[in-house]
Write a structure and sequence with these properties.
Chain A: One of its GO terms (biological process) is cytochrome complex assembly. The complex is a heterodimer. Chain A is an all-alpha fold. Chain A has six helices and no strands. The relative contact order of chain A is 0.06. In chain B, the strands form two sheets. Chain B has a five-stranded mixed beta sheet with strand order 5-4-3-6-7. The chains are: A mainly alpha, B alpha/beta.
């Protein structure tokens, strides 16, 4: 009996949890619904940090979803809506940071590193190849001459010992 | 030249290590307000305690703390006695009752004492939204022209006041007297 009661309570509490993040909005058309979904996934919940506002049960996320719905109804563009949020909550709310001087490294850093790596690799490979074709020993002509001279001297050294 | 190139990986490692080391001491939950150095957004809202209407112009005149609170906010209860003390010491504090039941708010102010000079009733949370409030308590520090100069998220206790907010508030008061 007790066990059943526990199961029932757990079940009921789960219903509460799953229903919490569902709002009932009536959209004008399918396109607006898609935009709503896209926007709420692109904006970050200020309270819960690592959740988007589509996903969050925090009261502030509910408020922001309602606000986005209202602005969509008013016919505002996606940019306007994101701008509205950034004006109030800062750049933090963008999951997709804006492209400007401060975020340049963030946007192009990885690609830059990759290209840099390939360039470096190319340089190393080319150098290696040119060395192989020019003589094989890897010595410059100066060094080669010194080596030859030293080799000629070798018998002299032996006599001294 | 070749020697220097050999040192390059070490240099890169040290630079990365420095950044990561600094990252250890950053607080990721710290959100700078987007409204610093901007005026308090325009609003026209009823007062909590009477029938009056309060607008952004009423906040001008003196540097003040603008405290966002609610009766449903558990930590506001902890903060409230501290605000009472500050008000006794002559600190100007205004309250924004954020997304709350007005009758509950009136009861709270009667029971726990009212440290606020102005009590703004933001039942819909519209002013809170424009201020970028994402929870309570939050406290804004505004100067005599109603420009937001600092935002503090969380409970103000004696230590926070002494170490962070008091110097800033005093700075604004001095600035206003000049």
């Amino acid at each position: 009996m007790k066990r059943w009661l526990a199961v029932a309570i757990l079940g009921l509490s789960l219903i509460g949890v799953t229903q919490a993040a569902i709002d009932t909005y009536e959209f004008a058309d399918e396109a607006e619904r898609t935009r709503f979904r896209q926007l709420t996934q692109e904006l970050r919940c200020p309270k819960c940090q690592n959740q988007d506002i589509a996903d969050s049960n925090a009261p502030i996320a509910t408020d922001l979803r309602r606000e986005i719905f209202r602005m969509l109804g008013e016919g505002q563009s996606n940019e306007q809506i994101v701008e509205f949020m950034v004006d109030r909550y800062g750049e933090f709310v963008r999951y997709k940071p804006a492209l400007n001087a401060r975020t340049l490294l963030l946007w192009y850093g990885p690609a830059g590193l990759l290209v840099g790596g390939f360039v470096l690799l190319g340089v190393i490979v080319l150098r290696h190849r040119s060395k192989k074709t020019s003589g094989g020993s890897g010595l410059s002509t100066d060094e080669q001459q010194r080596l030859d001279a030293l080799l000629k001297q070798a018998p002299l050294d032996k006599k001294e010992q | 030249m070749k020697r220097l190139i050999l040192l390059l990986p070490l240099a890169i490692f040290l630079a990365v290590a420095l950044f990561l080391y600094r990252g250890l001491f950053l607080d990721p939950s710290e959100l700078p307000s987007a409204l610093i150095d901007k005026p308090v957004p325009a609003f026209s809202l009823p007062a909590v305690l009477d029938d009056g209407v309060i607008t952004q112009d009423d906040l001008k005149g003196k540097p003040a703390l603008v405290n966002v609170w609610a009766t449903w906010c558990v930590s506001c209860r902890v903060e409230h006695p501290v605000l009472n003390k500050l008000a006794e010491r002559g600190v100007v504090i205004h309250g924004i009752n954020y997304k709350d039941d007005n009758a509950d708010a009136q009861k709270w102010l009667q029971e726990f004492h009212n440290p606020y000079q102005l009590n703004i009733n933001d039942e819909q949370g519209s002013l809170g939204l424009n201020l970028g409030v994402y929870g309570a308590p939050e406290t804004f520090l505004i100067d005599k022209d109603g420009i937001i100069r600092h935002k503090f998220v969380g409970v103000i206790d004696e230590r926070v006041w002494r170490e962070q907010l008091a110097p800033l508030y005093q700075g604004l008061v001095d600035e206003a007297e000049q």
